Amino acid sequence: MKRPEDCTGVPGAFLSMLDDIEKCRAAGFLRPALTMALCVPDFCRKRIGKSYKYAEWCKTYGGFLLQRFANELYDVRNSAVHEMTPRMSCLLDFSKEAARPFPVQVTCVSLPVKYQTINAGALIAELLAAGRTFYEKSGDDLRDHLDTVDDYFIEDVSELFWV
Q1: Which residues make Cβ contacts (< 8 Å) with residue 8, sequence separation at least 6?
Q2: Has residue 118 been placed in a domain?
Q3: For residue 24, which of 18, 33, 84, 85 is within the disulfide window of CB 3.0 to 4.6 Å?
Q4: 4 found inside a domain
Q5: Along the chain (163 residues), what's the average pLDDT of each consecutive run of 10 residues?
């Protein structure tokens, strides 16, 4: 194992992290999965190296939900990370539907926004898909930078013995 100051990232580590978040969602652990998924745009945009707003990243790489709620998702991320409660203008649906393999987001436009729901699983899936899109569209240098996500984790104690 390399010393922390020599870390360069394991190829595919970023995609592996996205897969871990998806497994968490599919197992029904929606709060931690949503909190981690809401951090994906932040992690990606900070690796670009220029001033890139969270909402701008969501609009560029996200689908319908990320584009519709781009301007409020950074605040949702902050409340999820710092207050352990993701607060949105809509209600978040954490029912068992959110853990299905392909969660479906149904938007009811006849209700006032405060009574509309967002399937948390669909939001998680869309955040992860946007992260994958960002990774795929990135050059090798940026991918290498994204893959440093696991540089400070070990899977085996023997990795502590630097070679």
Answers
A1: 2, 144, 148, 151
A2: yes
A3: 33
A4: no
A5: 46 91 93 94 83 89 91 90 84 82 66 75 94 93 86 67 60
